[in-house]
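cache lookup: miss for this entity combination. No prior model stored, computing from scratch. Input as submitted by user K.M.:
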Amino acid sequence: MPSFIPWSAVTLLVITSLGLLVSREWRWSLALLAGQYFAAFWLTYTRWPLTMAATQLVTGWMAAAMLGMSLIHTSAGSAEESSWPQGSGFRLFAAGLVLIAVFASAPNIAAWQPGIGLPLVTGAFILIALGLLHLGMTAHPLQIILGLLTLLLGFVTIFSAIENSILVAGLLSTVNLSLALTGCYLLALKTQETQA
Amino acid sequence: MNAPIVWILIPLGLAALLLLLPGTRLLSSLGTIIALTLAGLAYWLPPDTALRIGSLSLRIDSTLTLFGRQLTLGASDQTLLILVYGMAAFWFFGTLALGNSRQIVSLGLAITALLVASLAIHPFLYAALLIEIAILVCVPLLTQPGEQPGRGLIRFVIYQTLAMPLILFAGFLLSGVETGPSDVSLITQSAALLAFGFAFLLAVFPLYSWIPLLAEEVPLYRLGFILTLFPTFGLVFGLTFIDHYPWLRDSAQLGPALQTVGLLTCVSAGIWAAFQRHLGRMAAYGAIAETGVSLLAISLADRSVGLQILFYLLIPRALALGVWMMSATILTLHTKDLSFRALQGTARQFPVATAGIIIANLTLAGTPLFATFPVRQALWEKLAAQSIPAALWFSLASLGLWAGALRSLAVLTMAPENTPWVSRETWEQRLLILLGLIGLGILGLLPQWAQPLLASLPTLFEHLSK
């Protein structure tokens, strides 16, 4: 695989993760989530067989579709945060700091397990760090689930370099889908409560 | 027939069927019967052991192969299977008195089966994934239709989900260094990830904030079920890690680290419990303190004694938490609020539930004559032999829970003069609480009765039990 493909995937991951952090419109968020899974697919494909990498991609897209189906008739996905910090500028600033830290530490982390490859480590840790930042900035169920899916995608990306068991890939897909289902359930509860 | 099919796949299928059944009493009864049958089956027909009935020979094989990996429930898992399905039966039986059993029985059975699967899977590292799936199944159990998910639930999902990738990642990094510390920096980094992962999973200090929050938000009986099962499996999973890696098992830092975390968890929970003004939060701190006590038991220099103390505490803890949560739920059904302000003088209307709350609280505080006392005393003695300050801090944790029990008693009995004594509990509620209280008393007076059942549990861990 040409070396520019993994780095292009990392660039796409930066754009989609930042977009997810800033966006509060659920349609954009889910489109960015789908893009994030696509970019991660190219990174995992460098280490996993096509079928296993594609399973993660399809699982991610299914998760996005499930969340979309449950949000389509509700307004629960577009709620603004009620607590500080609320502004996009602050989120971008915080994300910028996190990205600098990730790019600075990625070569050291890559040295833990020789042969993993810098693009894969960088991409995975961008997802993990921005996923954690996402979780720390919201209390909204949809945003929480998006943050957790981003974080888990980061770990799946890094697992692809050190583990290639079909059972693990299957269980990770199950966890992703269960998380999306949990999100749908929490959003449905929120809608019921709003209607009541 | 395979053991994983009997104790994992069949309960999962039955859990799905139970979700569709009408009638809460039928559901409670069926759930209890199923869990008891599974526990009984583990007792009479353990895996890999032939049972002869006349000319008929029955045998359950221990291993099921799935996608090239194995699920194994061997003869050494027999006691844990009995205990886990027995505990599930106990919690399902309690719903007969409380109603609203649909979620706890069907989802509870699925959660139990998933946690048993986490025990059975090889390599054991994959257990983190199954525990995570079980955690996500808890979400519908901890929510009520029409009610917005609260901060506690959101925090529960985040914290428990964070545990899974941290443990998995650390485990995968360590897979190359199972036998010896060949790469010290890799081991240090992996050990740090592992510690964070288990800190999230076991909800130790200061990562337990979701438990008191949930205690205010969700039905307490359901929370009690989760707080009984998850720490048990989390601890077994953690012990499997320690047993598996010689460098971790033989590490000089492991004991002191576990002791520090255990003390921080139980002392902070004990102190917070003493100052609570909400019965649910107080019960939550009681459960948190128990995790700290378990860590203290594992931290003992004599590992086999530590394991015995850990497993001997399981039954009294489950019983005390069950009685505490059931009694508090009965009060919630009538007062809708468990804050001290709403509960003043309630003892005159609910004397049995009040007795249940106070005695269960005192039991978890390690009060003499109650169920946890003999085991806690053994732990205290061993701890004092290692470190007097640690034993004193441990007594402070018990003192905090004790103060909480006395404050609850004062508030619950603070009724205006001449208020008549009545008992508004139903006869089923009275019967179940009284049975639980008798159990707590018997376990306190005759602690040795459980020895034949529990003595073999430490053999789950090949190296630690030696």
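stored under new cache key. The helical segments of chain A are 4-22, 26-44, 50-71, 88-110, 118-136, 141-162, 166-195.
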